[in-house]
Write a structure and sequence with these properties.
By secondary structure, the protein is mostly helical. The chain is built from 6 helices and 2 strands. The radius of gyration is 27 Å and the shape is flat.
């Protein structure tokens, strides 16, 4: 089926956005007027539009990098909000220790145990926050550091990390 100009433009934008053929056809079915695209049509549309397709692709990538979770500040804020919810669960809802039913003979009793899984997730979340704000380094590139300006403690820490299989 030959596409109208408006349909061709929409197809090109959706392809540049990175949608796959089934996703494109879902949107095309809701388009006015609705249409359907085959794989060869999509391939041909990308090739024919060449430069415009590349420009649209770059535009969508720039937009994606400047909004939502792609922005560092947004990720940090979301991680901090999640950390606050877990802290609230620990301290206000008293879920640091949880009751777990255990069967002893023919009786069921509640045994209190430390909520290790949630604490582990919380610690991982704090680590993610530290990494996002740059407080946690995973590797040290000695080629970029002027070791003559480091304190003895910093040198010892680097040497210790090297000896333990780090950096």
């Amino acid at each position: 089926m030959k596409l109208k100009r408006k349909q061709q433009n929409a197809l090109l934008e959706w392809a540049a956005e990175g949608l796959r053929l089934p996703e494109i056809n879902d949107r095309a079915a809701k388009f006015d007027p609705p249409f359907e695209v085959e794989w060869l049509q999509l391939k041909h549309a990308r090739k024919r539009a060449g430069k415009r397709f590349s420009e649209l692709r770059e535009q969508f990538e720039k937009e994606a990098l400047s909004e939502g979770l792609a922005r560092r500040a947004v990720r940090i804020r979301r991680l901090a909000e999640l950390a606050e919810k877990i802290e609230e669960d620990f301290y206000e809802n008293k879920r640091l220790w949880v009751k777990e039913p255990k069967q002893v003979g023919d009786k069921v009793i509640d045994v209190e145990r430390f909520n290790a899984a949630e604490v582990k997730e919380y610690r991982g979340l704090l680590d993610d926050i530290a990494r996002e704000i740059g407080d946690r380094r995973t590797k040290i590139d000695l080629r970029t550091i002027d070791v003559t300006k480091l304190s003895d403690e910093e040198l010892d820490a680097i040497i210790g990390a090297e000896g333990e299989g780090g950096a």
